[in-house]
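User: Okay, second chain of the day. Same drill as before: sequence in, structure tokens out.
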Amino acid sequence: MNARLTPRLDPVTEPLYRLAVAASVISPSNTLRLAAARLAEEGLGAIPVIQDHQYMGLVTERDLARALANGATPDDIIEPWVRTQDPTLAPAETGAAALRMLVEHELTAIAVVAPERHFVGLVTPRLLVAPVEFESRPRQVGGMATPFGVYLTTGAASGGVPMWALIASGAYMFGLFFVGAHVALFAFLALPTKAQIPWIYDLMSFVFFLLALRLSPLAKIHAAEHMTVHAIEQNEAITPEVVARMPRVHPRCGTNLAIGASLFLGVLNSPWPAEQELRLLIAVLVTVTLFRPLGSFVQMWGTTAPAKAKHIALGVAAGRDLLQK
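Assistant: Same drill. Structure tokens below.
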């Protein structure tokens, strides 16, 4: 089950043409009012000023404050306040060069400029911490653990193991249930006759199934799947170190749905109370109240187990595969 991990994007060593982001440009004849609006829209801390298709300089919020302090009005042009002396960097420079320049010159952004003063994009401190790859993450990711690795999907794209592994996972789960049911049957028949009640056998089958699952490698892969989904949905880097810090219980796990269905049907089919309408009401209340905490408990102690490095690697590989699509 060894997974081959793709290299992590390191902003410090990456060339700036991969890190720089495009930004709306303005001309020196535009107003301070328009510059303020573009700064708010872009959220990059600076707006590039272009004249005759060539890069001229940047305008920042500090420049707007400086203009107003010197008596300018919002409808005055920005040309006198453009930062034409700020240094620029070539596209082939690395994030390390950008970092040094940001610190040395106390800049909020650096323009990446190609030959002939062609504007490429902006680099900011935020982009050196969290590159753009983290800004296009799916909000929700679904997944499934299989004996061969982790499967992840957004609904539009998928990553990790192929679809046939999902079928293998179903067969694997059936095998665990089969083993649990037969072990439960032997234990059930060993009970005193008065204790051989059908619901006791059902409970024993469920417990032995969870025990078999917990002891299997699938529980560790299941944990790695949850941890990877947490990292993606929290916009964290998909690396073994970060994924290993994520919780292994996930609120959208199918375990919660299974526990909810079991609670609802168990209460609804119970002999008490006699009135069916009242049983239905109690079943709904019990399910809504308990399915999440009970589901989380079963996840923690039944359907997942602490993942080892090799299982986390499977989750990381699936996460990176998904985000590359």
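The two ends are 23 Å apart (CA to CA).

User: Thanks, on to the next one.
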